[in-house]
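So, can you check?
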Amino acid sequence: MKVLKKLESLGFSSYEAKAYYALLRRFPANGYEISKLAQIPPSKIYEVLTKLKNRGAVLDSQSEPVLYYPVQPKILFTRIQEDTEKSIQSVLTDLASIPPMDAFDLTWNLQGTDSINTKMIELICQAEKEVFASLWPEQVALLNASLSDAVNRGVYVVTAIFGECDVKASQVVNLEVCSHNVYQRVGAKLCTVIADDTEVVIGKLAEEDRSSTGVWTKTPSLVLVTKEYVRHDIMVNVLVNHMGQEQYEDICRSYDILRQLQKKK
């Protein structure tokens, strides 16, 4: 019966709902009559009626035999509604005063080129002070609008691009001279966006979009290491441009550690 289920949803037990419903149909009634009408075992009926009395759903006579009367639904449920609203307000007040825990670090996996680029755009759009980005030309068409908006609202935007392209930023560094070396050594196109030194997206772009993988995190150590990676690429690029590619390659051949670092992974 639907009304019994509704009573149960309001906190009545199955037996309590049956007993209260039975009393509404016939009152006053003694325990035996209620037990029979509600189909509740006689051994349970007085325990059930006591709980209903404590709930304020029934009244009993102070005579022998004891007779029971139901509190009329409108009175009963108006009181229940008022008590529930007071309880909810009290809980809301208590919960509002709970101090937040210190933020803990999470790293979220990103799957697919679209997912990586979409999260990068989100970081750029939310940045308030600074964006450091290391990107490939094919990404710029997707991210350029958000980079431009960031510059227009006063965000300092540094972009290192592995190729020639038109990009809006406070500072643009063309890393095309080392793009082939990077791709050959790593076997993929690494890219990153760091926003306000607080969060970072790191991507590994594959030939097949769905095979691209990445992470998004606010873990301070990863944010720091990734920004240093971009700064390193920019500084090396400036040095190579200053000394010339031939001299740079001579230096790399002269030092075993540099030869080892330039090997494929």
Q: What stands out?
A: Residues 73-96 form the longest helix (24 residues). DSSP finds eleven helices and nine strands in the chain.
